[in-house]
Design goal:
This protein is of the alpha/beta class. Helices cover 43% and strands 18% of the residues. Strands 2-3-4-1-6 form a 5-stranded parallel beta sheet, with helices on both faces. A 5-stranded mixed beta sheet has the order 14-15-16-17-18, sandwiched between helices.
Amino acid sequence: MAKIVGIGTQSFEAMREKNTFYVDKTAFIKEWWENQDAVTLITRPRRFGKTLNMDMLKCFFSNKYEGRGDLFEGLDIWKEERYHELQGTYPVIFLSFAKIKQNTYEGAIKQIKNELINQYNAFDYIMESNLYNENERAQYKSVCVGMDDAVAQEAINNLSNYLSRYYGKKVIILLDEYDTPMQEAYVNSYWEELVAFTRSLFNSTFKTNPYLERAIMTGITRVSKESIFSDLNNLVVVTTTSNQYETAFGFTEEEVFNALDEQGLSDKKEEVKMWYDGFTFGNKKDIYNPWSIINFLKFKSLKTYWADSSSNGLINNLVQKGSSYIKTMLETLISGKTINVIIDEQIVFSELEYSEDAVWSLMLASGYLKVISAEELNLTRESENEYELALTNREILFMFRKMILRWFSPAKMETNEFVRALMGGDVESMNEYMNDVALKTFSSFDSGKHTSEKKAPENFFHGFVLGLMVDQTKNYIINSNRESGYGRYDIILEPVDKENIKYPGIVIEFKVINPKKENSLEETVAAALKQIEEKNYDEELVKRGVKKENIHHYGFAFKGKEVLIDGR
């Protein structure tokens, strides 16, 4: 009989007691324990089972779960007799930063301190012991609302001391979603302040803590060592490209197909694979997104479950305001091709606005891109490789399509009217509507002080091409030469239905005015049209079956927010 599929449950204990759907990941316990690493950081995309696995570790190791071997009966870890004796034998401190999403530094620190207070409250019974003197009891009570930063930064170290003495064993520390506050700090411009606080907290907790047995942290990104881990030379980092713990997070294809069989959905395997497969961890391919799989098992409908579970605001902002290079690379990805870029898995948030490579690194860590192949470029710096990347799966493709269409939502009516005029050859209306679109959306593509007057219009029309690509996929195959820079950028719209005159072949040449060569937009647009003729851009369309008389030529000339279009 198929088990009930619950959505959003992150309690291992609850899932086991209710006997709801669960994919056995307890082999992770053995793998982690036998690696003997003092402090481990594991990065995986959001909603890939990190919190559930951390809760599983808590249930296995924490002495609060002593005698609860029943939770693990029938699972992989319980097949190992020697692990029966290990279960429920350690004091465990389990912290989560998942909910620390504040707009201000003060708000973030307050929430971090609240998490520390909760830990102290959970163990306050130990202070009844005569093991501690009055100074220590006073110190314990000092972890409270209104404590200063220094007290907070030493709080877990001190709690480890108290617990170790009380139980006669060193502690295991679990920290889930360690980087959530860091991402919020970057978005809301208090990065440097939070880094300084966090560096001291982590040093005290994980480096200079003699009462620590083992620790494990999870997150989405590997924040650069120089930022918050500069003192942690005992840290083992496991990213999505590492070979350790390859199948501990996410579902393997075998696990997914078994679940589909159990739920009576065996005939959906091919569709599910197309939508939700594609993640690669280490050398293990065909890893599936668990959040989407669980939702599909529950609702039996193919939707963008994972992509819709977050605003994806940071990625959206970085791509929208990013350079024309980033947009052309995204064009390549959306068209189903791959890109080759340099990846440094140590995310330096302060570089995201300036480093295009950092953007791809973040997208890879976040699960939007998958590794096709990798070639190490610099043996002296193992983190820096050239990677061949692609969009992870259909769900991610649809996510980007929705994201790009939202860019033009302030001018939705004007954009639609422009496309109609484009296909109908109405140049006068094209000019009217395109200038309206530019006026309403141009600034959203301008990254402000980092964008020159030359680059701002270029960023806009590259974004516009992306908009065409995702809005007209049913009617057109869109190809572009994508040469960015101070000059041309031509695209060709090949109609899917070559016989339908409603959808003509379209050749577009974009040019940003060059004051050294042209005195007006009229001269620039004339140069664009001349280039289409001289380079015979029609040839490709004719070869593909489009009639010569059903091909439209358009030149687009840009100067700031001004756009001039002409055609023939």
